[in-house]
Amino acid sequence: MTLTQTAPPRRRLVLVGGVVAALLVVLGAGLAYFSGDDGPQHPVVRTDPVNHEVLYEVTGTAAATAPVITWVTGERNATEQAVNVPLPWKSSITLPVGPSGGYAAVEVRSAATGAGSLSCRMFVDGVQVAQQVATDGFAGVACSHRIPPEYVK
Q1: Contact 138, 110 (CB under 8 A)
Q2: What is the pTM for the complete model shown?
Q3: 99 preceded by cis ω (within 30°)?
Q4: Contact criterion met (CB below 8 Å) for 66 and 89
Q5: How far is CA 139 from CA 1, 28, 60, 107, 136, in A?
Q6: Chain centroid to CA 84: how far?
Q7: Are 117 and 95 in contact (CB under 8 A)?
Q8: For the CA atoms of the chain, what is the radius of gyration?
Q9: How far apart are CA 107 and CA 92, in angstroms?
Q10: Is the distance from CB of 88 to CB of 120 less than 8 angstroms?
């Protein structure tokens, strides 16, 4: 005589129902994970230029003039240069910044007298973004900043 044990029908039904429920949860999670976006979200850059106000400032303590000041004035890194500039000096420009970003810079040559200091500061849209100081009386200074492009929200 062989005895075989079988689970009562109700117990078997609960077991099968639990397995089916677990499979549905796994399947639902998989669908939710894989049916989302096709990849990471990438920022979209504005294609039309956005204007930024750039302010350059140059000061010095010993020399009343800077022999040469060169600064970026617009698109494609166009520059201007001034010679024998009285200090302090300021210049404000409107810089259009497109999808590849923009660049602002000012460079000041020293009178190389060995006395005094020379400094530059740069502001973009009212925020200081660069500052350099040379105190040995021989070194020039340069301030530069890359302005990132604007992104579409």
Answers
A1: yes
A2: 0.70
A3: no
A4: yes
A5: 107, 67, 12, 11, 7
A6: 35
A7: no
A8: 34
A9: 15
A10: no
122, 128 contact by CB (below 8 A): yes
Q: How far apart are alpha carbons 147 and 68 in whole angstroms?
A: 25
Encode burial over 87-120: b for 16+ CB neighbours within 10 A, e otherwise: bebebebebebeeeebebbbbbbbbeeeebbbbb
Q: What type of residue is 125?
A: D
List the chain pLDDT tens, one digit each, 153 residues.
Answer: 565 555 556 666 666 667 767 766 666 666 556 665 565 677 788 888 899 999 999 999 866 788 999 999 987 889 999 999 999 999 999 999 988 889 999 999 988 777 788 999 999 999 999 999 998 888 899 999 999 998 887
Residue carrying structure tokens 């698109």: 75
Q: In this structure, what token pair is assigned to residue 61?
A: 């303590």
